[in-house]
Structure formats: structure tokens, C-alpha cells
Design brief:
Order of helices and strands: HEEEEEHHHHH
Distance between the termini: 46 Å
Shape: elongated
Oligomer: single chain
Number of helices: 6
Strand content: 5-15%
Largest sheet: 3 strands, antiparallel
Helix content: 40-55%
Length: 164
């Protein structure tokens, strides 16, 4: 049975730049309540929202701009950067210690080692282990143990890139 392809691991330095780029565009958008589709707010002044008349006991349905994807008229205005996105950006700023270039350079250096794959290379670039116990904790879930030479190579690569 074929397993689903896994996404490529990305270090926090790269995520930081991606989020800054994506969230630097601060424009109001409409989001469809039905399908989740986003679309720009129309330039023309919208007509005042009229509510459809429904049977007694039911809530009126708001009528607004039409969704380009599903033709629903249940659209909400999403204003600029959302709270959750701001939290994600703040979290990445706090945790990322290397920029995208340095992160990728470190990943290239450590990926050549025997037990280091893309996932562990990204973890090493995020955590920047400076002590053998830090390296062992990264590989703790594996059934193999990382040798002393490999641990020293990882720490040396981290020190070379960070200048520590």
C-alpha cells in the first residue's frame, strides 16, 4: 500500500520569512461562510443588506455579495491580519534564531550525516543543539542511537553556522 507523500520539512527561519511576506499584504477580503472561499471586496458600494423573509420562528438569512465559488450570499468581511495569524507570526519571531539562508546552509551540512534526513535537519536548524544531550533529545523517538562522532559533527556544524 502506498503512503501519502509527506510535506517537506521547513525550518523556522524560512517559515518566518514566508509568514512575513504573506501577512505583509493587508487587504480586507470577503470569506464565504458556506465554502470558505476568499475573494476581494468589490470596489462599488454594496447595497444595504436586506434580510430574506422566513417562516415564523426561523432566523432571517442575511443577503450580501455573491460568492464566486459556490454562489452563496453568506459572505463575511475579514479585516486585515487575523488574530491567529498575528500569534503565529509572533511565535515564529520568538523562536527562529537563524534566517532562511543560514537555516538552509545548516540543513545542507547535516543532511549528509548517516541518521539525518530532511525532518531531522529541519529540527536541528530550529533547535540549534550545542550540547550532546540536546542532539540525543532530537533523535529520542528513534530506535537507533546516534554515535558520538555524528553528535560532534552536528554540534560543529551548528557552531560553524551560528558563529558560537
Amino acid at each position: 500500500m502506498e503512503s501519502e507523500p509527506q510535506p517537506e520539512p521547513v525550518p523556522l527561519g524560512v517559515v518566518n520569512k514566508m509568514l512575513e511576506k504573506e501577512l505583509s499584504v493587508r487587504e480586507n477580503r470577503l470569506r464565504c461562510i458556506e465554502c470558505g472561499h476568499f475573494q476581494p471586496v468589490p470596489d462599488a458600494e454594496p447595497e444595504p443588506a436586506v434580510e430574506e423573509v422566513t417562516e415564523e420562528g426561523e432566523e432571517p438569512t442575511p443577503v450580501g455579495p455573491t460568492c464566486d465559488s459556490c454562489s452563496s450570499q453568506r459572505m463575511t468581511l475579514i479585516e486585515q491580519i487575523q488574530y491567529e495569524h498575528k500569534l503565529a507570526l509572533d511565535h515564529v519571531h520568538l523562536l527562529s534564531k537563524l534566517g532562511p539562508k543560514e537555516s538552509k546552509m545548516l540543513m545542507k551540512k547535516v543532511i549528509e550525516l548517516e541518521h539525518v534526513n530532511d525532518y531531522y535537519a529541519a529540527k536541528i536548524a530550529d533547535i540549534l543543539p550545542m550540547h550532546p544531550d540536546d542532539v540525543r533529545s532530537i533523535f529520542a523517538r528513534e530506535r537507533f542511537s546516534v554515535g558520538r562522532e555524528e553528535i560532534d559533527s552536528i554540534i560543529a556544524a551548528v557552531k560553524e553556522i551560528t558563529g558560537a
